[in-house]
Amino acid sequence: MSALPRASELGLIGCHVCGLVCRDTGVEGVHCPRCHSPLHRRKKASYSRTWALLIAAFILYIPANLLPIMRTVSVGDVDDNTILSGVIELWVKGSPDLAIIVFTASIVVPMLKFLALVTLLWSSHRNSGWARRQRAKLYRLVELIGYWSMLDVFVVALLTALVQFGLLSLVEPLPGVVFFGLTVVLTMFASMSFDPRLIWDGRDSDD
């Protein structure tokens, strides 16, 4: 089965911001007629920028898991929790549902994002024809779930704001939550820097 024509072959270009398909005039500096954002045929330096952001995110993810993210202070007790110890404590104290949610958002989702982005970068750099449609769907999934990775940061912020009982109890954010927040932001920027059109480069068939 012959490959379908590309947008560039049809003289079309998509807006990176609003997704509007526009006519490619071949002139630099053209803006989208709907949102007025600059139109680009490709994201510049997609490979290098995505790799740099992804590596930086992975480096920051290490202290995000090793350092405590939250300190709970109550009468006669001070407890510092990392992400994993917090999950264990939630489970032990009778909140398995919340423990599973936090574990999924803070451990499973970031690791899957790292694995997915590395797979997309490696396969696209090799011009691999393997599962192009599935890889395109994987990229859209990575973008979709990226915002939910901030759940740990939201939980700490919410507890810090709500659980304030003077001398009886206190919740304080610790450095681990900063590293985790930076990890999430960098992985979001990494997925934004990746150009999904690289998936379809070099294709000779409609996969």
UniProtKB/TrEMBL annotation:
It comes from the Bacteria. The keyword Isomerase does not apply. Pfam families: PqiA (PF04403). The keyword Nucleotidyltransferase does not apply. Its main location: membrane. InterPro entries: PqiA-like, PqiA-PqiB_transport. Signal peptide: none annotated. Keywords: Cell inner membrane, Cell membrane, Membrane, Transmembrane, Transmembrane helix. It is found in: Cell inner membrane. The chain crosses the membrane at residues 51-70, 98-123, 144-168, 174-194. This is Paraquat-inducible protein A. The lineage of its organism: Bacteria, Pseudomonadati, Pseudomonadota, Gammaproteobacteria, Lysobacterales.
